[in-house]
Amino acid sequence: MAIPIINDWQKYFSNPHEGLGSSYERVILNKMLFRFANAFGIKTILETPSFGFTGVSGINLMGLAKAGFAVSLEDHDEQRLSLVSSLWQSLELPLEVKLNNTYSSLDYPSQSMDMGFNFSALWFVSNLDAFLSELCRVVSKLIIICVPNRDGFGYKMQIKDYSPTAYPNINPEYIDPESICAIMRKHGWKLLDHKYIDCPPWPDIGMSKELFIRRMLGNNAPTKPESTTPDKPVSILPYYAGRDEGFDARMMRYSFVEAIAPIMFKKYWAHHRYLAFAPKD
Predict the structure, then answer these.
(1) The CATH number of the domain where 179 resides is what?
(2) How far is residue 123's CA from residue 116's CA, in Å, rounded to a whole number?
(3) What is the CA radius of gyration of the chain?
(4) CA atoms within 13 A on the CB side of 186
(5) Which secondary-structure segment (H or E) carries 98?
């Protein structure tokens, strides 16, 4: 969760270098999504809102699309929606897109989507109750909502950069799991599963390691000459394009903490949580 991405998200479309953290996150997210989609017989998926706080926008469901799932997504920025569409077209992946300025209503028939999904994106809806009510109406089988881990060390450090004046278009109170669950229950949905996710060996610093060290150590941080050699790009997009088959395995080398860490450790170290809901009946 890196708040400044709101101001510079465009850069990732010209240089899709997401770094190791977001790349690991993509792979872990894919594995969770495939597990649920296969278990619930999902065929159609709606991602709304699609803009979160990580790297290249609009690619969370590319893995499922490559596997034959029908994907639709919404965004509140017309330029970003156009760039997302062009990116999917370049990879020859089908995608349905819609512009949604507020997310208070969803322009889809009732129960027309098997699954609803968003990742670190709820802060952008204008009214949480109205949005979740509409999502419950449109989706028939499963809703997965991922939120930043508000108990996590990284989140607590990054949220210090937030102020309503600096970021008037985000609502941090909307990512509270208890509030989300209460609204979903009101609209006839039950919580099936909830877990910490995206728990690599590094903290959720949302910045370069050099900047992280300077923030932690202040004036005592060691200085280092700037390198003239750019970092080697790290991105999942070549993997989706079929040019980097080993990407998944390389990212999973960092999953040992995810696999063995106890819940109490993940509570303060994991970067995100997911909440999976199904209709009560």
Answers:
(1) 3.40.50.150
(2) 16
(3) 18
(4) 13
(5) strand 96-99
Query: 3-state class of 14 per DSSP?
Result: helix
Cα angle, residue 65 at apex, residues 259 and 102 outer, rounded to 5°: 95
Amino acid residing at 273? R
**Segment 197-239, tens digit of pLDDT:** 999 999 887 655 445 545 655 655 555 444 444 457 899 999 9
Residue 112, domain extent:
5-279
105 Cβ contact list (under 8 Å, min separation 6): 130, 134
Asked if 177 and 273 touch (Cβ cutoff 8 Å), the reply is yes
DSSP 133-202: HHHHHHEEEEEEEEEE-TTSHHHHHHGGG--TTT-TT--GGGG-HHHHHHHHHHTTEEEEEEEEE---SS
Helix axes 128-138, 177-186, angle to 10 degrees: 50
Domain count, the chain: 1
